[in-house]
Amino acid sequence: MNIPNTITMIRLVMTVFVFVLLELHARAGCVSMTLPWIAFALFLVAAVTDFLDGYLARKWNMVSPFGRIADPFADKILIVGTMISLLHFPVATAVVTHWYVVVVIAREFLVTAIRGYVESTGKAFGADRLGKWKMVSQCWTVAAVMSMVAGSSWFEWAAIGGFWVSLALTVVSGLNYCIKARELIMKGAA
Description:
This protein is mainly alpha-helical. The protein has 7 helices and no strands. It has one domain: CDP-alcohol phosphotransferase transmembrane (TM) domain (Four Helix Bundle (Hemerythrin (Met), subunit A), Up-down Bundle).
């Protein structure tokens, strides 16, 4: 277990705490705003570790098979799990709608399936810039919505703008992976 992989595992643990804090907040009837602010802070730290572990793995030449699986898994759990947890709150569902969460989950299943298939043929098929920007926009959106759950209306504009940007990038990056995979598969068949 190297440092980047340890950071990835820490992200998973922080993500679980985000879910627990949001669940406790929902069950307590949203009376205290302390729990969602702690969840918000943990989410931000977890999101930053997403960029840190990959950067360190590449910089220190510590890219590993475990990291290639664990890092995107941790990302998906962080984003999708937090979105699902936010569906408890009416203020959140005004921005992060149920159908939006389904689109995000569908895209993640599709890209994971495509990546698994292409990499099973021996070709590398990692994340691209569009996928990374998609992750940034989703983190932005989720963080802004979490601040709304915590009682702040200051970032409502950021949540709404982030919703539309992340929706577009989710769809476009998913289509981009389909096109790239088709090209790789067709070249391999030729």
